[in-house]
Amino acid sequence: MSEILAEEECLSQSGQSRRNLLKLGAVGGAAMIAAGVTPAAKAREDGIGLVKHDAFPLKISPNYQRFSEMDTSFHRFNKAGIAFYKRPKPDENKPGFTSIDYALKMGGRSVANALSPYAPAYEGYHLPKIFKPNALNSEFRFKDSATAHAVIKRAARHYGADLVGITRRDPRWDYTHVREGNTAHKFEDALQFEPKTVIMLGFEVGYEGMRAAPSPLGDAGQVDGYSKMSKTSLQLASFLQLLGFHAAGVGNSFGLSVPYGIAAGLGENTRMGLLLNHKYGPRIRLGKVYTDLDLDEYFDKPVTFGVESFCKKCMHCADNCPSKAIPKDEEPSMGPPDDGTDWGFSNPGVRKWYVNCDKCLQYWADSNTSCSSCITSCPYNKPNFWHHRLIDKANMFLPGPLHKLMADMDLLHGYGKTFNETAPAVFWDDKGRSYDGFGD
Ligand code: SF4
Ligand code: SF4
Question: Which residues contact 52 (CB under 8 A, 6 or more apart)?
Answer without folding.
Answer: 265, 301, 302, 303
